[in-house]
Amino acid sequence: MGVQCFLEGLPKEQTVLCLEGEYPSLLWPFQERGYKIRTVAKSLLVEEEITEILKKERIDILAISLVQWLDGFQINMQWLKQIKRLHPGLLIIADGTQYCGIEAFDFDTSGIDVLGASGYKWLLGGYGNGFFCFNDRTLTNTKLSQLGFGSVRGDADKRAGIGLAECLEPGHQDALALGSLGRSVEQLMDWGLETIVEQNQKLHQAVLTHIGAKGLLDELDFNRSQHGMIYSIAYSEERWRRLNEGAKVHCALRSGRIRLGFHFYNVVEEVEQIASLL
């Protein structure tokens, strides 16, 4: 809902660049409002391809998940900074749901204009919560007509002076859900981002070593410098049965493949056990 509300403050006669297979909750709001959509396929050199498109075509908005929901494909974060420097007028809207919580991230230096994320994934915050980050230019230049009594915190005299953030909070907030996210973030920080990143890197290497050796991963998993903690493996009915019904491994079917996910609370031995089932 956050993306849909935010788009109400943008002109509709714009072209949006997205990756093929982008998460529906990021893509559909643009499609439903009649934006022109330009897509590019995921590849080893996708950043270079997008760079060339931005040179040759008019692209107003780059809407992209930092980590793709289907297979863990991760965009190069340093490249995003470079693109913003080269194209300061480009509005970069990022979905961080599959990214936030797997490694350290500084929004202020990211080059991203708008970042939205749900808290139930790698932030371990449970359902019903999420957040948005806006840079100063976006906060200043985006005007929304959506508002409610919650936007003014119960003081009607403040109606004329509310900003973007208040417009996105027109009603009651779920204090329990937001408190759960806040407590989870505190706990992650207590454990330490360096510890989380180090363990996730070990798990990633274990996936490449033990599952990749069976030829079940995509080549992009091996040849990209950055990768999320989601992995898409080749489907077979027997493989799905062993994982889902036999060993009770929590996994999902997505686009005809089996999606697995690991986080810092997993251990390498669990990756090895899952590999043995494949």
TrEMBL record:
Pfam families in UniProt: Aminotran_5
Name of the protein: Aminotransferase class V domain-containing protein
SUPFAM superfamilies associated with the record: PLP-dependent transferases
Domain of life (superkingdom): Bacteria
InterPro entries assigned to the protein according to its UniProt record, in alphabetical order: Aminotrans_V_dom (IPR000192), PyrdxlP-dep_Trfase (IPR015424), PyrdxlP-dep_Trfase_major (IPR015421), PyrdxlP-dep_Trfase_small (IPR015422)
Domain Aminotransferase class V span(s) in chain numbering: 8-237
Keywords: Pyridoxal phosphate
